Amino acid sequence: MHARELHSEDASGLFKLEQPFDDPLRKALFALMKRPLARLLCFKKLNSLYESVHNQVEAGQDFVDVVLDLLNVQVNINEESLRHIPAKGPVFVVANHPFGIIDGLILMKTMRMVRPDSMVMANSMLGMIPEMRPYLVEVDPFGTSESAKRNIGGLKAALRLLRQGHMIGTFPAGEVASLRLRKRMVRDPQWSPIVAGIVRKTGAQVVPMFFKGRHGPLFQALGLVHPRLRTVMLPRVNLKKGNQAVDVTIGKPISAAKTRSFATDEEAINYLRFRTHILRRIDRKKDKASDGQLEETPIAAPWPHDDLMREIRSLDEERILLRSGEFLVFETGVSRMPGLLHEIGRLREETFRPVGEGTGRELDTDRFDMTYRHIVLWDEENERLAGAYRFGRTDELLARQGIRGLYSSTLFKLRPELFERMGPAMEMGRSFICSEYQRSYQSLLLLWKGISEYVTRNPRYKTLFGCVSVSSDYTPVSRELMVRFLRRHRAVPDLEHLARPKRPPKLKYVKRLDISLPETAFNDIEDIGVVVGDIETDKSIPVLLKQYLKLGGRILSFNIDPDFGDCMDGLILVDLRETERRMLNRFMGPDKAATFLEYHGVLPADETK
């Protein structure tokens, strides 16, 4: 039903049905149905509401606020996320469309909290309300030949406003979300690529915005009978949306360079839709293990300081890997250093618990600590442990104990062929930096320089592998995004069958978004980090995972560890011969890096890598 059939501004009210027919029979039938249709469309209530709105606006009040107040719709917006809206420059806000006209009002309210110059590109039917016209760039979503002609003016206006540096918001779906019977989900229909075309032409930033909610089963059922029945019901169901709150989530801005990086407008709009709908996952519950179900014992008291210092002073000089300022980095076994092992276990647990990991025991130690080596970051000035890394020499461990001598065998089914193909390797794990030392990247850098120094002294270990953790403090959808990216871009297809997870993660959240993403959507881990940052708000990709990837790390498999706070472990492999030379130089130093590569027969020409 088009605007001309609804709109008249005479004494009988703004909303009424006009006679659309000329022939006598249809005119008579329409006259019989006019009153029941008007009741169905809630015209009496709409006109009463409009009269109240009109009077308050005439008295100087804001139109959008008045309507939302009269409908008693509360808009919940995280003030921190409002900062994601750029204060100046061309911006196109894209949002899902769960309700109808209320969406447009909420969108206008939210945008104008930051940018009073904002407008909404929306259904021209809304222009029948005089007070809404100043906020609108009008388009006709009905898809007729007349619609195309009318939309030319609206699209030109949108292009002009963005090029002038204004902000526009829109609903690229063009119609309200409805039930997709085959998918058994309520979703927006396909988004219009025209929106992406406008963005790419104007160089505007895009801000995704998600409104939580949907219409009830009656509305969805009528839509299955005929889509126009949904349209007819919109006034009634929007009026009933009163007396409730709508949660609004705002994502981080997407650069013009990103939207222009796609080959087509269709690819770009699918990416924008994904970035919008992924925001629905922010308020979802995390893994059950992250809800505090793990029973925790109080963490052990520190080891007596004087006894610990006697152990540190007893270290052989050859165990010292490097010194830097107040820090000392050394490697050692702990079979004869009970105090150091106690402090490592105590501080591991103290560091891991706040981020959803940890064992729940008073000390985070296990049987592998006694057979593995430890690289320790020691603060000499304050005489305390700042961090540590555990590593096992696979050639020695396999010879003595077989595969069960490796920590990773507790999480993955490892086949001997994996180690035959890798050769001598160092299995890395249980790394931590105490919270007081996490403010600076220097602590992790020194640990990695310590590892690199150990490798240069023992160059047969060309491969690092082990478990890198993504804690259950991350939402399941964030962890799934990391898994999907790493499987697509950093997998080792010819080795992954040699390392099978005992408890693989369930991947179901991204699939439910029902959005086909182009291959170029996520080219590197930073692309995923931006999306994870939208979902988590307080963190991005784990630092250690990014560090391994910078070294050229590749993923063999993923597993969920129920004994460690249900964290997700990625089994990662780094062949140091293939690490970029600038990274090796950074950690080993140019001369030692050259010696290491020469040991493995890597030619000088490879220095350009």
From TrEMBL:
Pathway: Lipid metabolism. GO terms for molecular function: acyltransferase activity. SUPFAM superfamilies: Acyl-CoA N-acyltransferases (Nat), Glycerol-3-phosphate (1)-acyltransferase. Keywords: Acyltransferase, Lipid biosynthesis, Lipid metabolism, Transferase. One of its GO terms (biological process) is lipid metabolic process. Coiled coil: none annotated. The keyword Repeat does not apply. Residues 91-214 form the Phospholipid/glycerol acyltransferase domain. InterPro entries: ACT14924-like_Acyltransf_dom (IPR045746), Acyl_CoA_acyltransferase (IPR016181), Ornithine_N-alpha-AT (IPR052351), Plipid/glycerol_acylTrfase (IPR002123). This is Putative hemolysin. It comes from Paucidesulfovibrio gracilis DSM 16080.
